[in-house]
Amino acid sequence: MIEFKISAPGKIILFGEHAAVYGRTAVASSINLRTTVKFTERCRSQYLRNIIKIEFPDIKLSFSFPFYVFRNHFFSDNFDYPSVKKNNQLYSCVSDFIDLIKDSTDKSNNEITKEQKLSLQAFFYLFVYIAYEECINVKETSLHVHLSTELKVGTGLGSSASFAVCLSACFLHWSILQKGNQHCTFNKDELDKISKYALNCEKIMHESPSGIDNSVCTYGSVIKFQQKKLVDMLPHMLNLKILLVNTNIIRSTKDQVERAARIKNVYPDIINPILDCIGDVSQNAWEVFTEMNKIADKATEAMEDYWFEKLSVLMNMNQGLLISLDVTHPRLEMICAMAFTHSYAAKLTGAGGGGYAYVLLPPDIENESIDLFSKELKENDFDVTIIKLGGSGVKIEH
C-alpha cells in the first residue's frame, strides 16, 4: 500500500493584478492557508472491488466508480496519447469521459454541479497527463484521493492553483514511489515540472492564467513575476501585519479577466498606459520589499514607518488603477474606505469583482486597535483573517 499527504499554500497578489496577464510586473506571496491531499493506493484484491474514490468535501463532492472504467478508457490501444497531446485534445477527452461516467456509475453519485465537474475535469486531466508524461504504471488497483482546503473557493486566494499544484505534486510523487525510489522532498527540477503541469491545468479553469498563482503555490515565498515568468524571489518572510478581508461576494476569475480584456480591446490607447502604470507600481513595491528583506534584522522604527508609508501610497495607487479597469466592487471599495478612516491602506487582491481585499497595518499597531477594526469589519458582514506572508511552497507532509 502507498499512502502519503501533500500540501500547497494559497496565494495573495500584493501588486499587479490583471497587468500581469499582459506581461507587466506583479508581486505575489504565499500565505499560511493551505490545501492538502491525502492519497492512498491499495493493492489489487480479488475480494474487494477496485475503485477510484474521490472526495473533495469543501465542494461537497464524493465520487466513486470502478477503476477498470478509467483504465480502459485512457490506457487501452484505442487511446492515442501522442496524437491527443499534439492536437491539444486531452481536455475534451476528459470532459467526454466525465459525461460518460456521471451517467453510468453508482447511484450514490448525485447530480454534479458545475464547480464539481470542473474539479473532476482538473483531476482526470492531471491524472492522465502526468501518468503518460511520468510513466505511471496504471494497473488494476484501488485509489482514494481526499482533498481539503483552508481556502475559500472563488475568492482570489489561488484555491484552483493550490488544488492543481497539490494534485500535480501528488501524481508526480506517486510516480517516483512506484519506481521504488525514496522521495522525501521535491527538488528544483520536480518543482518546475509541478508548476508546468499545474499551469496547463489552470488553463482549463481560467483560459488565460498569468502563471502567477501556480508559481506561488509551487515555490512559496514572495515572488516577482514579469513577462509571465517568475524572475525573482525573496528568501525570507516579510514581517508585515496583514488583514485579509472577505467581501463574501463570489465571482469567477475567468469572467473578471475577460471583463478587463473587453475594456482593453475597446479602449487600447487608454488601458495600455494604465497597465504600464500598474507594472511600474509593482516594480516600486518590489524594490521596497527587497530593501526590507536585506536589512530586516537591523531595521529601526523609523525605517519600518518609512516602508509602511511607501507601500501604503503604492497600494492606493494600484487600487485606483484597478478601478479604472472596472474590476472592483462596491464591497471592496467599502473595505478600502473603512481602512482609510483609520489611516490604513487597503486594496483588492486577485481578479476583483468581489473576493478579498487586504489591509496593511502599521508596524507599531496595538492588538487592541486590530481587534477594534476587525470588529467594525465584521459588523458590516465582512470576514476577517490575520495572515502571514511567505512560507513554504508545495511539500510532502511527514
From TrEMBL:
Q: Name one Pfam family in it.
A: GHMP_kinases_C
Q: Does the keyword Kinase apply?
A: yes
**Reactions the enzyme catalyzes:** (R)-mevalonate + ATP = (R)-5-phosphomevalonate + ADP + H(+)
A Gene Ontology term for the protein's cellular component? cytosol
User: Which EC numbers characterise this protein's activity in its record?
Assistant: 2.7.1.36
Biological or metabolic pathway of the protein: Isoprenoid biosynthesis; isopentenyl diphosphate biosynthesis via mevalonate pathway; isopentenyl diphosphate from (R)-mevalonate: step 1/3
Report the InterPro entries cross-referenced here.
GHMP_kinase_C_dom, GHMP_kinase_C_sf, GHMP_kinase_N_dom, GHMP_knse_ATP-bd_CS, Mev_gal_kin, Ribosomal_Su5_D2-typ_SF, Ribsml_uS5_D2-typ_fold_subgr
Listed GO molecular functions?
ATP binding; mevalonate kinase activity
Q: Where is the GHMP kinase N-terminal domain?
A: 135-220
Q: What class of enzyme is it?
A: transferase
Query: Where does the protein principally reside?
Result: cytoplasm
Coiled coil spans: none
Instruction: Name one process (GO BP) from the record.
Output: isopentenyl diphosphate biosynthetic process, mevalonate pathway
Keywords annotated in UniProt: ATP-binding, Cytoplasm, Kinase, Lipid biosynthesis, Lipid metabolism, Magnesium, Nucleotide-binding, Steroid biosynthesis, Steroid metabolism, Sterol biosynthesis, Sterol metabolism, Transferase
Family membership = Belongs to the GHMP kinase family. Mevalonate kinase subfamily.
Q: What is this protein called?
A: Mevalonate kinase
Q: Which organism is it from?
A: Atta cephalotes
